[in-house]
């Protein structure tokens, strides 16, 4: 396989020639394959967790992860970020205030987070299932804007259009449509990258909506609510725990959002439908 796109020497995808079968017909076909590498998140020189991620937008990932895991309380507390290439992965070296680091150091994570894992090395039940803060009022979203947002988002998933193997998280603005998309092999990594990018731009998280191409698992609700996002719409289903957390914190949770169809699981007042708009 050949590397064709790189960031810091690592590839976001590779190309190779593979055996393709369509029924009895065999051909040798060139294909694009998404990359994933170990990324070590280091706070104040101490490794905290190793995540398997797509090696793109790693500074966004560092900030988003730090916010959604409540390691820091605001973007300015991430005092420095340095991404360092290693032979077997990437180190993201961060500096945070000493009082934040002291609380973090006692959590005892320092474990590997798999691509699809949202626990990130939690060692207690309290760490694993954090009850998110109650979200604000937010904005009402029309069903037409929601379906249009997902259609536009699909065309802006550049890595997935090549590989078909990565998740995406996107921010839908009430006036500008899809303004930011981040991709990763891990659904929660994509969300952390998006939140980090938006936080750097001083985004008002009540002034827009979150769209994701994955299922709506509990950690997606947890991460969204931690920064004040009020509506999360997912292409696939939610879990029971995701519904419970969304109900508790006041977040509108939408699942199976495909074409003009969707299911609303919690707080439906933020999603306006065609008959409601016409009334």
UniProtKB/TrEMBL annotation:
SUPFAM superfamilies: Cytidine deaminase-like. Keywords: Cytoplasm, Molybdenum cofactor biosynthesis. The active site is at 117 (cysteine persulfide intermediate). Pfam families: FdhD-NarQ. The keyword Cytoplasm applies. Its main location: cytoplasm. It is found in: Cytoplasm. Gene3D superfamilies: 3.10.20.10, Cytidine Deaminase, domain 2 (3.40.140.10). NCBIfam families: fdhD_narQ. Belongs to the FdhD family. Required for formate dehydrogenase (FDH) activity. Acts as a sulfur carrier protein that transfers sulfur from IscS to the molybdenum cofactor prior to its insertion into FDH. This is Sulfur carrier protein FdhD. The gene is fdhD.
């Amino acid at each position: 396989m050949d590397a064709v796109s790189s960031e810091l020497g690592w590839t976001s995808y590779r190309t190779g020639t593979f055996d393709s079968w369509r029924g009895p017909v065999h051909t040798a076909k060139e294909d694009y394959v998404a990359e994933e590498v170990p990324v070590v998140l280091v706070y104040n020189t101490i490794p905290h967790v190793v995540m398997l991620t797509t090696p793109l937008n790693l500074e966004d990932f560092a900030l988003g992860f730090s916010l959604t895991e409540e390691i820091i309380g605001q973007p300015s507390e991430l005092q420095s970020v340095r991404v360092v290439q290693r032979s077997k992965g990437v180190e993201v070296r961060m500096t945070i205030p000493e009082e934040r680091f002291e609380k973090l150091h006692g959590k005892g994570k320092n474990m590997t987070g798999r691509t699809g894992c949202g626990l990130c090395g939690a060692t207690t039940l309290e760490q694993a299932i954090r009850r998110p803060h109650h979200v604000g009022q937010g904005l009402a979203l029309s069903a037409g804007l929601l379906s249009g947002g997902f259609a536009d988002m699909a065309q802006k998933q550049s890595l997935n259009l090549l590989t078909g193997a990565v998740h995406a998280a996107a921010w839908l603005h009430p006036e500008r449509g899809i303004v930011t998309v981040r991709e990763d092999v891990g659904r929660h990594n994509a969300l952390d990258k998006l939140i980090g990018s938006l936080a750097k731009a001083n985004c008002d998280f009540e002034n827009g909506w979150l769209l994701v191409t994955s299922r709506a698992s509990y950690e997606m609700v947890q991460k969204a609510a931690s920064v004040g996002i009020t509506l999360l719409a997912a292409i696939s289903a939610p879990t029971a725990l995701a519904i419970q957390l969304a109900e508790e914190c006041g977040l509108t949770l939408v699942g199976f959002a495909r074409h003009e169809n969707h299911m609303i699981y919690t707080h439906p007042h933020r999603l306006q439908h065609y008959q409601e708009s016409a009334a």
